[in-house]
Every structure is written in structure tokens, then in C-alpha cells.
Design a protein that fits this description.
The chain is α/β, with parallel strands linked by helices. It is 35% helix and 30% strand. It has six helices and ten strands; from the N terminus they run βαβββαβββαβαβαβα. Strands 5-9-8-6-10 form a five-stranded mixed β-barrel, surrounded by five helices. A hairpin with a 2-residue loop joins strand 3 and strand 4. Helix 1 runs parallel beside helix 6 and helix 2 runs parallel beside helix 5. The N and C termini lie close together (6 Å). Pathway: Amino-acid biosynthesis; L-methionine biosynthesis via salvage pathway; S-methyl-5-thio-alpha-D-ribose 1-phosphate from S-methyl-5'-thioadenosine (hydrolase route): step 1/2.
Length: 233
């Protein structure tokens, strides 16, 4: 269905575990990034670590599309849980994504609304969403898998007040620092995408402790889902 699939993770913990399952044919250096081209689960893949934050993620996504010809993009990694029903190591599959730290309310726009754009909420591809969700359910890890909104900002959320706002104002299921930027660029290029996030923390006062303890296990959960969904798309 997709000739070339781009896979983006922000950190080494999210990308290196996927490299172990990839037959790498070529490595290209560009804009300080390392793009690994090859095969994973029989699919043509370009795997890259974009670095942390929205600008890094956006730049990386555009290069994947423009230079490496990605016909679909999977953004994998970890996030902070916003929904009460989510626990550490549970997984969220994006239905859509938005940038929670975009604030033009002084000009009469709603929080998160980007001026002069048709939409500020970027919808994930239904086929990729269902493939990821099925992969999560079939994985049998015992952790919850749910579909929901990913809310992105250049901030590590570790405050209950901020967490509550992201739920009340944006109806977020989880929060992280790259997904909506990947989604934004994919939407502008009309490229299908999905975001897969395993929970490393609960985005509250204990987030920094939980993150350090669970980030590698959470990244492992995301990796398992990516490998499984590649077999079905």
C-alpha cells in the first residue's frame, strides 16, 4: 500500500531498539540527522531520530517526505498520560493531534488554534490508526491500548494544573513534544500518518521520577506495536 514508510522517534531509546530489527542498506546524513534506509518486516523503511521538540520533528518530517519519498509516516515513542484511565506503559494511538502551546488568544483565536489555517487539528489516517490499534490489541502485553488525541508542546508536563488544563481545554489523551508537528507537516503534504505513544509517566508531580524509570520499557511497547503493524499495511 505504501512504497516507503518513514518512522520517526525523538530519542535514541525510541529508535535504537527499532534499528535492531532493520536490515539497513544505506545511511544518509542530512541537517544533523541520520536517515537509515532499508527493510523492516519486509517493508521499505526510512528510520530516523529527529531529536526532541516541535521544530526538530517538523524539519525531520519534511525531509522524510521531500528527500526520501516517504508515502506514510509513523511517529513512535513515549508520552505522558492525561486520561485517568491510562497507566504507565499503556498505549495511545492518535485519532488526531494538535499543538497545545500555540496561543493567539490575544487576537481572538481559541487556545491551540493556528491563525489563517484551515484547521489546527490534524487527523490521523484511519487505515494506519486501525492497523496500529489492532497491533496493540493482538500484542497481548496486558497493557491498555486506546485511541485518542495527542497534544503536543515544547514542554515536559509535570504539573497537575497543566495536566488538568490539557484535558479540560484540549481533550487530550496524552501529551508529548513532537507528534502534532509531525502531523502538521504530513497534513500539509497530504501524507498519511499515525502517532503511537506508550506512557512513560502520568504528566503530574511525579512525572520526572516515573519517566526516568519507565522510558525504556515504554519505548519497548511502542516498538512492538510498530513491528506488528508493519506486517499488515
Amino acid at each position: 500500500m505504501f512504497d516507503i514508510i518513514g518512522i520517526i522517534g525523538a530519542m535514541d531509546e525510541e529508535v535504537d531498539i527499532l534499528k535492531h530489527h532493520m536490515k539497513i542498506d544505506e545511511i544518509s546524513q542530512m541537517a544533523g540527522l541520520e536517515f537509515c534506509q532499508g527493510k523492516m518486516e519486509g517493508r521499505n523503511i526510512v528510520l530516523v531520530r529527529c531529536g526532541i521538540g516541535k521544530v526538530n520533528a517538523a524539519m525531520c518530517t519534511q525531509l522524510l517526505i521531500s528527500v526520501f519519498g516517504a508515502a506514510a509516516v509513523i511517529n513512535t515513542g513515549v508520552a505522558g498520560a492525561l486520561c485517568d484511565e491510562l497507566d504507565v506503559l499503556d498505549v495511545v494511538i492518535s485519532t488526531d493531534a494538535l499543538e497545545h502551546d500555540f496561543d493567539a488568544t490575544g487576537f481572538g483565536y481559541k487556545p491551540g488554534e493556528i491563525p489563517r489555517m484551515e484547521t489546527s487539528v490534524f487527523e490521523a489516517d484511519p487505515i494506519l490508526v486501525e492497523a496500529a490499534y489492532k497491533a496493540g490489541i493482538d500484542n497481548g502485553s496486558g497493557h491498555k491500548v486506546m485511541k485518542g488525541r495527542v497534544v503536543t508542546g515544547d514542554v515536559f508536563v509535570s504539573s497537575k494544573d497543566v495536566k488538568d488544563k490539557l484535558v479540560d481545554v484540549f481533550s487530550g489523551a496524552c501529551t508529548e513534544m513532537e507528534g502534532a508537528s509531525v502531523a502538521h507537516v504530513c497534513a500539509l503534504n497530504k501524507i498519511p500518518f499515525v502517532i503511537i505513544r506508550a506512557m512513560s509517566d502520568k504528566a503530574d508531580g511525579s512525572a520526572h521520577v516515573n519517566y526516568s524509570e519507565f522510558v525504556e520499557a515504554a519505548a519497548e511497547n511502542s516498538k512492538d506495536m510498530v513491528l506488528s503493524m508493519l506486517k499488515s499495511i
